[in-house]
């Protein structure tokens, strides 16, 4: 297998033996350790097998200074992929391209042919414009950065973005737009002109000088124009030279004429291929004739230009310094070669001269020129430290229906694979993870499960964040995750003694057990303090009261208090009784309830009917009878007094009510 | 390319044996031969010591974080034969439960999927595996599998929770019928799969391929496919990837990931199970990914070195 890239963790102590490794949600942990200290470091063959250390060595294991070597490092390294770090600087890129991505996924698939293609080209241009905007920002940041390390970081990013835009642009021309030979050539020329900028300064210098023809670099600039197919500009410059030197007027006129007559494809190309070819053939022969009969013999510059027009490879190659890159060389050769025979021979070897080997950028561009789309994607994946580029480019190419044939082993496809990688990386960021959600949504095979696994790891620092995450899960019917998040939030609230919040979270989680636990806490609090907290919540439980018996009791008990507060005594009485007779109240609470009945029993007006009073008495007897002898013995004075008071109150009430009911009956 | 974003100086006085991030990557737990377990807050590149937990009487081998829905809970296991469960209550970390049912070093602890409740599996050098399950109000129930591996058990790892059959939402309060499984690796050179049936744990499968002690097992997280995947590594220098295609869990087939030149101690899966990390005796951690054609390829290795960060330079190699 190819050489595996090695990543070095700086500062780790080389005298320690091994690396202990653990995955975090977004990062990895690395620390030095010495494995083999646990579980028996000796393999079966060794004496004393089974137990790693001799008995009694509990205190002496591996302590520094035991002669086993230098003390080991006590540091743990938290390591992250670079792309996750550069997320901050590329944030704008990620945000804006997200919009373009979503737009593309939702775009009109019904559009066919030309209009669809135009749409896709526009998308591609939008991506590039975002890249350029990001480059500009980064460039500004680089300039204004005082810290040299930061400056260098930004500058590196600028060159990476620039390379990315170069590649994307080429892919747009070759794959997305995929025009026919003529228009394709025009696009490639534009591409070269835009991206090979090393000569721009020189051009500017010569053009702005007082007397350009006298400038020492004059001919270089003319050559540049010719090489880049900017023949009108070349002609214009030459005309100034012509007027300066009357002796070679004839030569200039001929060359000017040849340049003017060169058949070039126009965008609104109306001529047929045959017509084009004939014209070109005719023109090519004319150039040949002038060259051969020595018209330019006295001026080597002009002679070499004529040779270039004829597509002479050696002549073009001589101007290597002005082309600076092999792909410029390639496009120039294409321009001056036969219009229908367009072998895209890269001939990089000619350009580079065989000493230097191709850089990653070269490899990628080569693959593009050879129309090896998958190779382009693969090489980009290797060369770039972040998935943004390959994920979005591949998605676009997929929409152009160019990636049909490849299905990866594990059933997914290249597009989805890359999108999953990219989106996963976004989850390590505290706010960009939201973009990741949308990307996962558009991965039909594994998007959902990846989302499930990642969304669980988002720290729920604030209630708002939790609600945001919840909404996302609910929208996608991710019930398990909803429940899990609600449980986590309930637990957090409980730990911080926010009972009301804990209760509403556990209701949302439909967690009966937890709701019971919290209700108990509420009731306990009431018993201790004599009042309820979070009344609003309890009062408005509604049907969710039914989640757990304890919760129902809590709700009803609070209702009892409300009724009592509103002086609706008979209703309150009825409810109170029902809580015991229907066994909604836990036995442990009965005493409290009966004690709550006391004020009702001592009202001026009789509240409890005879039957109700009998019921209450029965409840009291059940309660006291239920106590064991031991318990009765342990009951303190207060307890016994309470029971006595209750018995008395109940008896008195019974007496009053019998009289009242008897009187009514009688009248 | 990677960069170190934080270097936590744990101040452990002896070898660190394990370091684990919590669910959200906000806290780091470490354990050491100095018998302590430490917890740090590592948000935003910081390192604040939150707790220095003492309670073990010997080197602490592993720590494991429970799912946050149960609160902030950490388990640790040690040479001192104990498993301790720590909990954060009212802002402080305390021992909440101590299990002393093993006869020798407890080597590995692993929390079950949260769907099953709060359950901890523990593997020990006495050959047994215990399962500690929280039943409420501070109570834990223990189930023990004696003689799970002759000579000793070195590692335990739970299978992800998969609800068999129906995908419709269960009515509240009703627990779906999960089939609980976990894998273990031992000094009998075997990887075993255990399944709970009627409240009892039974040996379901014996996976034989290693020729020396199995040091670690790791059951891969589920990405929704019916296949199950387990990674195992051994004293014999081999790492195997075991896969089982059917839901019944009956036919497992091993694929050799790689034969290393030294003992392989540790294997672990990334969250989405697409990368396997392997720690070996050769000073390196290698990361592996399954490629297009089903073969496993090493995508990078992480090793130690002095000086600045640079990709492509070899760390200093040690003489053995």
From TrEMBL, chain A:
InterPro entries on file: Nucleoporin_Nup85
Main location, first listed in the record: nucleus
GO biological process: mRNA export from nucleus; positive regulation of DNA-templated transcription; protein import into nucleus
Keyword flag tRNA-binding: no
Compartments, as annotated in UniProt: Nucleus, Nuclear pore complex
Similarity comment: family membership: Belongs to the nucleoporin Nup85 family.
Stated role: Functions as a component of the nuclear pore complex (NPC).
Source organism, top-level taxon: Eukaryota
One Pfam family linked to the record: Nucleopor_Nup85
Gene Ontology CC terms, in alphabetical order: nuclear membrane; nuclear pore outer ring
Subunit structure: Component of the nuclear pore complex (NPC).
Keyword Protein transport: yes
Keywords: Membrane, mRNA transport, Nuclear pore complex, Nucleus, Protein transport, Translocation, Transport
GO MF annotations in UniProt: structural constituent of nuclear pore
Protein name: Nuclear pore complex protein Nup85
From TrEMBL, chain B:
One Gene Ontology CC term in the entry: nuclear pore outer ring
A Gene Ontology biological process term: mRNA transport
Main location: membrane
InterPro entries: Sec13/Seh1_fam (IPR037363), WD40/YVTN_repeat-like_dom_sf (IPR015943), WD40_repeat_dom_sf (IPR036322), WD40_rpt (IPR001680)
Top-level taxon: Eukaryota
GO MF terms held by the record: structural molecule activity
PROSITE patterns named among the record's database cross-references: WD_REPEATS_2 (PS50082), WD_REPEATS_REGION (PS50294)
One Pfam family named in its UniProt record: WD40
Extent of the WD repeats: 9-50, 53-96, 207-242
Places the protein is found: Lysosome membrane; Nucleus, Nuclear pore complex
Assigned keywords, A-Z: Lysosome, mRNA transport, Nuclear pore complex, Nucleus, Protein transport, Repeat, Translocation, Transport, WD repeat
Protein family membership: Belongs to the WD repeat SEC13 family.
Subunit structure: At the nuclear pore: component of the Y-shaped Nup107-160 subcomplex of the nuclear pore complex (NPC). The Nup107-160 subcomplex includes NUP160, NUP133, NUP107, NUP98, NUP85, NUP43, NUP37, SEH1 and SEC13. At the COPII coat complex: interacts with SEC31A and SEC31B. Interacts with SEC16A. Interacts with SEC16B. Component of the GATOR2 subcomplex, composed of MIOS, SEC13, SEH1L, WDR24 and WDR59. The GATOR2 complex interacts with CASTOR1 and CASTOR2; the interaction is negatively regulated by arginine.
Record's function text: As a component of the GATOR2 complex, functions as an activator of the amino acid-sensing branch of the mTORC1 signaling pathway. The GATOR2 complex indirectly activates mTORC1 through the inhibition of the GATOR1 subcomplex. GATOR2 probably acts as an E3 ubiquitin-protein ligase toward GATOR1. In the presence of abundant amino acids, the GATOR2 complex mediates ubiquitination of the NPRL2 core component of the GATOR1 complex, leading to GATOR1 inactivation. In the absence of amino acids, GATOR2 is inhibited, activating the GATOR1 complex. Functions as a component of the nuclear pore complex (NPC) and the COPII coat. At the endoplasmic reticulum, SEC13 is involved in the biogenesis of COPII-coated vesicles. Required for the exit of adipsin (CFD/ADN), an adipocyte-secreted protein from the endoplasmic reticulum.
Protein name per UniProt: Protein SEC13 homolog
Organism: Brachypteracias leptosomus
């Amino acid at each position: 297998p190819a050489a595996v890239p090695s990543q070095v963790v700086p500062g780790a102590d080389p005298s320690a033996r091994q690396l202990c490794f653990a995955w975090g949600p977004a990062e990895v942990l690395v620390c030095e350790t010495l494995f083999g200290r646990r579980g028996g470091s000796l393999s079966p063959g060794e004496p004393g097998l089974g137990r790693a250390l001799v008995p009694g060595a509990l205190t002496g294991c591996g302590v520094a200074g035991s002669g086993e070597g230098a003390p080991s490092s006590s540091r743990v390294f938290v390591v992250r992929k670079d792309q996750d770090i550069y997320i901050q600087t590329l944030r704008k890129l990620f945000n804006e391209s997200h919009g373009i991505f979503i737009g593309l996924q939702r775009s009109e698939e019904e559009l066919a042919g030309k209009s669809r293609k135009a749409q896709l080209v526009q998308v591609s241009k939008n991506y590039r414009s975002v890249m350029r905007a990001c480059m500009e920002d980064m460039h500004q940041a680089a300039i204004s950065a005082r810290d040299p390390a930061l400056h260098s970081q930004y500058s590196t990013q600028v060159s990476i973005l620039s390379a990315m835009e170069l590649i994307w642009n080429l892919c747009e021309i070759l794959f997305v737009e995929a025009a026919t030979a003529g228009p394709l050539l025009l696009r490639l020329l534009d591409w070269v002109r835009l991206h090979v900028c090393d000569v721009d300064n020189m051009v500017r210098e010569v053009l702005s000088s007082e007397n350009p023809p006298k400038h020492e670099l004059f001919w270089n600039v003319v050559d540049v124009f010719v090489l880049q197919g900017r023949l009108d500009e070349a002609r214009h410059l030459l005309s100034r030279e012509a007027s300066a030197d009357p002796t070679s007027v004839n030569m200039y006129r001929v060359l000017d004429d040849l340049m003017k007559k060169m058949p070039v494809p126009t965008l609104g190309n109306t001529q047929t291929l045959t017509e084009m070819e004939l014209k070109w053939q005719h023109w090519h022969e004319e150039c040949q004739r002038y060259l051969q009969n020595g018209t330019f013999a006295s001026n080597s510059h002009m002679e070499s230009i004529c040779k270039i027009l004829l597509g002479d490879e050696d002549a073009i190659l001589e101007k290597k310094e002005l082309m600076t890159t092999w792909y410029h060389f390639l496009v120039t050769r294409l321009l001056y070669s036969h219009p229908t025979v367009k072998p895209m021979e890269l001939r990089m070897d000619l350009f580079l001269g065989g000493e230097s080997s191709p850089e990653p950028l070269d490899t990628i561009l080569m693959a593009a020129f050879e129309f090896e789309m998958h190779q382009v994607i693969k090489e980009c994946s290797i060369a770039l430290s972040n998935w943004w580029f390959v994920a979005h480019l591949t998605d676009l190419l997929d929409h152009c229906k160019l990636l049909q044939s490849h299905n990866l082993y594990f059933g997914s496809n290249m597009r989805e694979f890359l999108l999953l990688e990219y989106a996963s990386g976004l989850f390590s960021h505290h706010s960009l993870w939201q973009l990741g959600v949308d990307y996962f949504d558009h991965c039909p095979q594994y998007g959902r499960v990846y989302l499930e696994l990642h969304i669980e790891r988002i720290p729920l620092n604030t209630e708002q964040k939790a609600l945001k995450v919840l909404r996302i899960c609910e929208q996608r019917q991710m019930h398990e995750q909803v429940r899990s998040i609600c449980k986590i939030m309930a637990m957090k609230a409980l730990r911080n003694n926010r009972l009301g919040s804990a209760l509403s979270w556990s209701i949302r989680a439909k967690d009966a057990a937890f709701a019971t636990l919290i209700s108990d806490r509420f009731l306990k609090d009431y018993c201790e303090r004599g009042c309820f907290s979070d009344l609003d919540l309890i009062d408005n439980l509604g049907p969710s009261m039914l989640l757990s018996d304890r919760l129902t009791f809590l709700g009803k008990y609070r209702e009892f208090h409300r009724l009592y507060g509103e002086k609706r005594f008979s209703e309150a009485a009825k409810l109170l009784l029902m809580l015991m007779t229907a066994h909604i109240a836990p036995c442990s609470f009965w005493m409290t309830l009966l004690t709550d009945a006391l004020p009702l029993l001592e009202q001026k007006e009789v509240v409890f009917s005879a039957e109700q009073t009998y019921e209450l008495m029965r409840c009291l007897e059940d309660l006291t009878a239920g106590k064991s002898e031991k318990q009765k013995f342990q009951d303190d004075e207060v307890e016994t007094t309470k029971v006595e008071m209750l018995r008395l109150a109940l008896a008195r009430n019974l007496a009053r009510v019998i009289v009242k009911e008897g009187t009514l009956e009688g009248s | 390319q990677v960069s170190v974003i934080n270097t936590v100086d744990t101040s452990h006085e002896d070898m660190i044996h394990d370091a684990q991030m919590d669910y959200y990557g906000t806290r780091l737990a470490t354990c050491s031969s100095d018998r302590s377990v430490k917890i740090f807050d590592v948000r935003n590149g910081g390192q604040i010591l939150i707790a220095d937990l003492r309670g073990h009487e010997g080197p602490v081998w592993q720590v494991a974080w429970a799912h946050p829905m149960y609160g902030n809970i950490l388990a640790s296991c040690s040479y001192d034969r104990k498993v301790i469960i720590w909990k954060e209550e009212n802002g402080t970390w305390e021992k909440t439960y101590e299990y002393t049912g093993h006869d020798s070093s407890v080597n590995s602890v692993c929390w079950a999927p949260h769907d099953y409740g709060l359950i901890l599996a523990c593997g020990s050098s006495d050959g047994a595996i215990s399962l500690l399950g929280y039943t409420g109000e501070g109570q834990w129930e223990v189930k023990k599998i004696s003689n799970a591996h002759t000579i000793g058990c070195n590692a335990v790892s739970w299978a992800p929770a998969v609800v068999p059959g129906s995908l419709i939402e269960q009515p509240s309060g009703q627990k779906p019928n999960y089939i609980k499984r976990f894998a273990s690796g031992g000094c009998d050179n075997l990887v075993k799969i255990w399944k709970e049936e009627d409240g009892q744990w039974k040996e379901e499968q014996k996976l034989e391929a290693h020729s020396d002690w199995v040091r670690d097992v790791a059951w891969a997280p589920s990405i929704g496919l019916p296949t199950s995947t387990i990674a195992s590594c051994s004293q014999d220098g081999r790492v195997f990837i075991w896969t089982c295609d059917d839901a019944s869990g009956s036919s497992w087939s091993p694929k050799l990931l790689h034969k290393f030149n030294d003992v392989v101690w540790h294997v672990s899966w990334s969250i989405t199970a697409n990368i396997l990390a392997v720690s070996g005796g050769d000073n390196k951690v290698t990361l592996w990914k399954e490629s297009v054609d089903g073969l496993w390829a090493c995508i990078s290795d992480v090793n130690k070195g002095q000086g600045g960060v640079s990709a492509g330079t070899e760390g200093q190699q040690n003489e053995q």
